Amino acid sequence: MTRVVAVRHGETEWNRTGRMQGWAPTVLNETGREQARAAGEWLVDEYTFDAVYASDLDRTRETADLILDAFEADFDVTHEPHWRERDIGVYQGFEYGEVLERFPKFSLGEAAYEASMAVPEGGESLRDVADRVTQRLGQVVSNHDDETVLVVTHGGPLHLMLGYAKDLPLLEGLKRHHQDNCGINEFAEEGDGLRVVRENERPWV
Predict the structure, then answer these.
(1) pLDDT digits over 30-68, tens only?
(2) Which residues are designated catalytic?
(3) Average pLDDT estimate for 126-141
(4) C-alpha pair distances (Å), 45 with each of 38, 151, 158, 205
(5) DSSP string, the chain
(6) What is the average per-residue pLDDT within 7-18?
(7) Which of 56, 106, 129, 196 has a CA that sits 20 to 30 A from residue 174's CA?
């Protein structure tokens, strides 16, 4: 049985102040570094990983490195754009509330379908993100038969992965879930799909 353990990156200053990061080159603050170290110390007692993947953005690279410091093995981390947060284009750096107030077509309210397909200038739609994340997740599961894989990614992709595993519509999957910084999720291969074993757990807190 293949298992995928997926972890959100640690806290950044933009997380703390409620700013939309997208593909911004933000790094962890000291709280985020402590979160990543704590996650690694817990994970090393729970899992033996056969492979490690991470988003290629700075905050996920740093989180993966700090998590893996707890392991004796030397991992060759595969950094990929597939696991990135949504590219929000010109809205990068805005506060969440400001975007929803000024640009309601990107909210997840009554016009949910339109919001999922809307593309910020210079960015990508939620459907684009869902396609790249879930397709890569399926490939990783297929390529690592009976192995345990660590993926370090972002909140948005994790919401989409959870919704995908639960067979939820795109927007419901995004609205239903919450991910804390360094929240741990586990997906287990089950038939032709995935089963959620852990969701947003931080047992060390």
Answers:
(1) 999 999 999 999 999 999 999 999 999 999 999 999 999
(2) 9, 85
(3) 96
(4) 12, 17, 23, 16
(5) --EEEEEEPPPBHHHHHTB--TT----B-HHHHHHHHHHHHHHHHH---SEEEEESSHHHHHHHHHHHTT-SSPP--EEEGGGPPP--GGGTT-BHHHHHHH-GGGSSSTTHHHHHH---TTS--HHHHHHHHHHHHHHHHHHSTT-EEEEEE-HHHHHHHHHHHTT--HHHHHHH----TT-EEEEEEETTEEEEEEEEE-TT-
(6) 96
(7) 56
